[in-house]
């Protein structure tokens, strides 16, 4: 089952998050696409996610998760102690998403913005959808 992470390709925080996941995803469970890419837009459309979304999206087979749910479902698939963070899923979604939205709303101000998407290494490139 395909597990795809859709991220804001011009967000420095999002780029660092993708690098964090890649570094820990030794089994190459995840694939990646920026929200701005053609592949990203196709996946948004396929799953009925509004095209103008700027949220972190995790597509797991035929299901998708957004905002805090997406992040927690990704942690569930990472090795070691990172899985424990999935336990936060028991918190009500509005509470989790309030914290998520605080970071999302300020991500460009706090972490900066890039002019273009990151350029992955040749090994990483295999994990990115075109």
From TrEMBL:
Q: What organism is the protein native to?
A: Cytobacillus horneckiae
Q: Which InterPro entries match?
A: DCC1-like (IPR007263), DCC_oxidoreductase (IPR052927)
Report a single Gene Ontology molecular function.
Answer: protein-disulfide reductase activity
What name does the UniProt record give this protein?
A: Thiol-disulfide oxidoreductase DCC family protein
- Annotated PANTHER family: DUF393 DOMAIN-CONTAINING PROTEIN (PTHR33639:SF2), THIOL-DISULFIDE OXIDOREDUCTASE DCC (PTHR33639)
TM spans (from-to)? none
């Amino acid at each position: 089952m395909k597990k795809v992470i859709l991220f804001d390709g011009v967000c420095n925080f999002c780029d660092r998050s993708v690098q964090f996941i890649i570094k820990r995803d030794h089994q190459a469970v995840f694939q990646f696409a920026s929200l701005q890419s053609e592949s990203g837009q196709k996946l948004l459309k396929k799953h009925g996610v509004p095209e103008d979304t700027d949220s972190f999206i995790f597509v797991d087979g035929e299901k998708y998760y957004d905002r805090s749910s997406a992040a927690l479902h990704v942690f569930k698939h990472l090795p070691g102690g990172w899985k424990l963070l999935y336990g936060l899923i028991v918190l009500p979604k509005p509470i989790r998403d309030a914290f998520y939205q605080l970071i999302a709303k300020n991500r460009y101000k706090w972490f900066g913005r890039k002019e273009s998407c990151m350029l992955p290494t040749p090994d990483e490139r295999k994990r990115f959808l075109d």
